[in-house]
UniProtKB/TrEMBL annotation:
Taxonomic lineage of the native organism: Bacteria, Pseudomonadati, Pseudomonadota, Gammaproteobacteria, Lysobacterales
InterPro entries recorded: Methyltransf_11, SAM-dependent_MTases_sf
Location of the Methyltransferase type domain: 13-66
GO molecular function, one term: S-adenosylmethionine-dependent methyltransferase activity
Protein name as it appears in the record: Methyltransferase type 11 domain-containing protein
Pfam family, one: Methyltransf_11
SUPFAM superfamilies xrefs: S-adenosyl-L-methionine-dependent methyltransferases
Taxonomic source organism: Pseudoxanthomonas dokdonensis
Length: 180
């Protein structure tokens, strides 16, 4: 599902073209939902909340969802590869894009962890921050031949990883529906 059909492979799965944040599915339809770097593209905070409410609506009561969001406070913004872009108010971000000839309008609204948690609370989700697990898994998978990375994955204290969370590029949550 996407707002633009950018598929290269067309066979073997269903694709739905959508506009807005309302999902074209019955309630309680899915066991698992993955929203991977989507919410920052759906619009303002109201649309972001609606995105989460729609995930909640179509998720089965026993289901779970994965939500990954670029950290608003990361130094290099991932879409345009510009330092501090996501830190700026939108009018300044637009100016920064024009000044650097990378675009004319900044259409991403990355979230900070506290803002995302507030939205998840408003959408009535139980959620678990997966930062520590994600860092350990990334070190093991991406740097499997590095003894140092393996050492860090096994020995780095969880509190230290959490302490570094403002510097980590992606916020990841596992979500489950609270009582409907």
């Amino acid at each position: 599902m996407d707002v633009v059909d950018n598929r290269i492979v067309h066979d073997g799965y269903d694709f739905n073209l959508v506009t807005g944040t309302t999902l074209p599915f019955d309630s309680a339809k899915f066991d698992i939902i993955i929203s991977n770097h989507v919410i920052e593209h759906v619009g303002d905070e109201n649309e972001q909340l609606n995105h989460l409410l729609e995930i909640r609506r179509v998720l089965k009561p026993s289901g779970c969802a994965y939500l990954a969001v670029p950290n608003k406070w990361r130094i290099i913004e991932p879409h345009y590869r510009l330092a501090f872009l996501s830190w700026l108010p939108l009018f300044m971000a637009d100016y920064y894009l024009r000044l650097t000839k990378r675009g004319t309008h900044y259409d991403c609204l990355p979230l900070s962890a506290p803002t995302l948690k507030n939205l998840l609370d408003s959408a009535n989700f139980n959620y678990q921050d997966m930062l520590v697990e994600a860092v350990r898994t990334t070190l093991n998978l991406e740097y499997s031949k590095s003894d140092f990375a393996t050492f860090l994955a096994r020995r780095l204290p969880s509190f230290f990883i959490r302490l570094l969370s403002p510097l980590i590029s992606t916020i990841i949550f596992k979500m489950e529906v609270k009582d409907r």
